[in-house]
């Protein structure tokens, strides 16, 4: 048996997506769930997924997609949660996608009944236990300082405050990127690109940037 692949190098290379093999070889997932995950990972980091939209791109029925999505939720590849207004009424549902369950906030953040939820655009929390914020701009970490510099240039204001737990997790994730060999020059180039293409509706929180960092820097 031979495998024939598309040439993915050179200036004429077609669009392609690099995906962590571990996720697609996760034997706990059905092939349906793996295919769904692979399709979703071809979309931009801030893409919003809806069940009806997914159905337009497959022969699968709605119940089948729901089953695949449930598998991904149970194993930590997907986090689906409600967005509420100030009166506590659900106004929409959001979905966060993780190429690896290790990227979930729970892997570095405290798990609570109503945790802080990092969406594509903003941070939402209804849990007063997590409202112990600190001034993030006091960090002496050079990678953080670089991010804050471009944040200030783009948003013309200081970065929003973060909780103590988030502050610690941010620095731990940056240290992990350094261990993978991500240099300060590479970090700055990606941060600059991030803010050059940042939608106006996105508040630019560094936590969301770090969630996408493994793909940005092509690290495990």
From TrEMBL:
Lineage: Bacteria, Bacillati, Bacillota, Bacilli, Bacillales
Domain of life: Bacteria
Stated name of the protein: Replication protein
Organism: Paenibacillus cineris
